[in-house]
Design brief:
Chain lengths: 203, 873
Amino acid sequence: MDSLEPSLYTVKAVFILDNDGNRLLSKYYDPELYPSMKEQKNFEMNVFNKTHKADNEIAFLEGMTIVYKSSIDLFFYVVGSAQENELMLMSVLNCLFESLSQILRKNVERRCLLDNMEGVFLVVDEIIDGGVILESDPQQVLQKVNYRLMSEPAYGFVLFDYITGNVEGETVKSQLLRMKTHYLNKAWPRFCSRPKSRSNGPF
Amino acid sequence: MIKKFDKKDEESGSGSNPFQHLEKSAVLQEARIFNETPINPRRCLHILTKIIYLLNQGEHFGTTEATEAFFAMTRLFQSNDQTLRRMCYLTIKEMANISEDVIIVTSSLTKDMTGKEDVYRGPAIRALCRITDTTMLQAIERYMKQAIVDKVPSVSSSALVSSLHMVKMSYDVVKRWVNEAQEAASSDNIMVQYHALGLLYHLRKNDRLAVTKMLNKFTKSGLKSPFAYCMLIRIASKLLDETDGGHDSPLFDFIESCLRNKNEMVVYEAASAIVHMPNCTARELAPAVSVLQLFCSSPKAALRYAAVRTLNKVAMKHPSAVTACNLDLENLITDSNRSIATLAITTLLKTGSESSVDRLMKQISSFVSEISDEFKVVVVQAISALCQKYPRKHSVMMNFLSNMLRDDGGFEYKRAIVDCIISIIEDNPESKETGLAHLCEFIEDCEHTVLATKILHLLGKEGPRTPQPSKYIRFIFNRVVLESEAVRAAAVSALAKFGAQNDDLLPSVLVLMQRCMMDSDDEVRDRATFYMNVLQQKQKALNAAYIFNGLSVSIPGLEKSLHQYTLEPTEKPFDMKSVPLATTPITEHKTEIASVATSKLPEKLAPSRQDIYQEQLAAISEFQGLGPLFKSSEQVQLTEAETEYVVRCIKHTFARHMVFQFDCTNTLNDQLLQKVVVQMEPSESYEVIQYIPAANLPYSQPGSCYTLVRLPDDDPTAVSCTFSCTMKYLVKDCDPNTGEPDDDGYDDEYVLEDLEVTVADHIQKVLKPNFGAAWDEVGDEFEKEETFALASVRTLDEAVGNIISFLGMQPCERSDKVPENKNSHVLFLAGVFRGGHDVLVRARLALADGVTMQVTVRSDEETVVDVILASVG
């Protein structure tokens, strides 16, 4: 029978897709699994097509066990071998999701994730290293990443950036809009999960 | 560019992607600001993110541009912004393979790894190890050792995991850190514990004794980390498997005790380990099954899935152990996760009674279109197993399968269905016609060449023997008209078989053959011409030899022999008998292992076991000139398990000689054996010609020595012989740790068990797909018949098994399976005797008080017939 070779290499791949199945982030840890970019994207598309309609938590595709979770317009996937302990994969997925949810202040949606992409890269790097589970406790991950939300800097800081010409290309309008959304963010966190549009304010 | 998408952002709100229209060249252009002073952390951070994002999207970076960006990035180490520094580490890791001279950052990383900022240290270690090679590793070895035992968990974990990654590259260096890893294993931090255990196991996995010690230590002291527990369970079950440890061993007790762990992950791992153990009794399975049963009602889908997947595995071997869970499984068949539902149903199909089959099949057909191909294969396999269990249900199954065959699906899925239908046909003669009809319909519209040829081959084999062979001709000939070359060629071969077996069809087959001879493909034309000419002779023997029972030689062997033949210019025609025969693979029992586990690796045409031996033996100069290897036996144990030395023997038969290969293992770590030979004393007129010793036999490294024996020429009937064997060798005591031997040694010997050579060693199995034709081909010139009474045998099954293993011949026409409730049976056996003589045996068995057997033997050589009859008697 196919018994498991005892090894720390648990995770074969991890990826985050948007609600069209486009890759936002993906890491493949087993060089033999889908070595080319084309194969990887095919696999991701196949997985997305089979999973995005039903929120079923777990699937078995192309000989891999896949655990997944969705949030608004994001899909998180952790892939392991067919014989892998499903609960180990789940603990990785949960840790990933919880950690991201905390650094994104519960706004686990595409826009917010993309705005804080560096934080996302760092979180994934702290959870899995080359396929080995490095950490599975979200609190530990946050502590290690020590990441401040991108939209954190205070008013004055943004203004300073603006004055020194750091935010090239941004119009005054968009800057002010951004400041406004910071404030909205802080004041009414629930608001931010809704699509922001111009009709929200006087600008 | 940036301006553009920022504007667009505003327009479309949250829907757009700030990275969507990134262009590599623009980003690299931006990366120039890395060189500006003072460094602007926020802007630099954003650019690094863009670079990593692009790499992640699969954008290709050329070596020059990557190197340029990488070097610019190294300047950012001057900034003290934490996130920026962390992103630098990530960039280093991402670019390690595409940029040149990445080692330039070694000193910066070494500084960070040993510095005061704990946040930097772990990630710096991981980045550093990513760019380090074996020679540089020695330079940082001191730091790595310190880091492994560092009291900051993230530092220790990072060092341990990085060491594990580097074991592949520099095993010898990492091996030296084993004491540090040992110390880390007793850390309080759960992840450090887990990583240390993983590294320790990886370093010691080839040393069974060390693994055992490690297991003992940790199972006694207990661990905190659930991950580490899972790892321990896996190591323990692997060790149990390798040592054939009984289930009363402390390792098994440990695994069983984990069933009571408070973490579900550990409980599941333990249950799964028990279920996967070979030869588990129902009583040992029971606790594992009952925890899985509990998991079936968990609110977590992953846990339900895990439980039912594992129960499904149990049901394959021990259906009765799972019946207790039937109620829980019934609840899962409507689970919204179709994977869980499918697994639940297929498990029930294995455990349920015959009466529930119809209901379950109906349930499953309601959603079979929604599930993935992988699970459809699982369903098909469940059906296949069911057909073996309840042969009477074959019509329901056949209908279901034919419906599935019509649906869309990938190759694996279709192949599973076709295999399943074929196995039903072979098991139930009454389902043959419906099955063949379904398959005929399928090949009318089949895109998979492999399946079409497989079905055509089956039609050729079974079709002519059905009551109405003519109705298959149309389907076969359609293939000749419509399909690709490979399918057309297979169709021609199938047609020929109809022509050879059915005289009334022969004229029409010849007409069709004539048409095939005008085919555009060489292979198709060649086959048609060949068959046409054979068929026109209207000779049964020719038909049998060239149409029904093709070549029985090993294909790699044939290739090698032909190549050899072309190298040596000779007048002699090529002799088919010099080619080693194909060994029929030891028929494994239908592998029902769910493809949930199958790997996707393409199957390679592996050389058979015998081809490997042939090559190994040919490499030994003493054995040249023995001719082709005729047969290699299975391994025979010549020592008891758990003794000082383990010796196994493989008997290689050649035309006039036998070579005994002794695979010896020395299990004493304080001894080195030299000049090892196995001395053999034959009981008959066999003559030992030469011993080829194994020069050195160090601890736990297997070695082989050989003994060459000449078979008696004057008495061809002397086929069986007993050899008493003694292993002789020179012992040198050595240091158990270093393996350094003393200078002096002394001679010693070790008595092994006797080795038997029997008639089976002289006969190679050959499958004759059409036994009747082969029987006629050999003819009755040297036919002999005798009747025996097998007093000690009680059932026909037992008798059949005994005869097959005694003669070592291949049962044909599935005659090794005795139908139930019959009291007579005919067994057909085929083989080739040493020297290349075909032997066929027909044994009629009748059951009355004991079994009576009438054996008829045919061969093209009289002595062979005598040998067989003499040895049976």
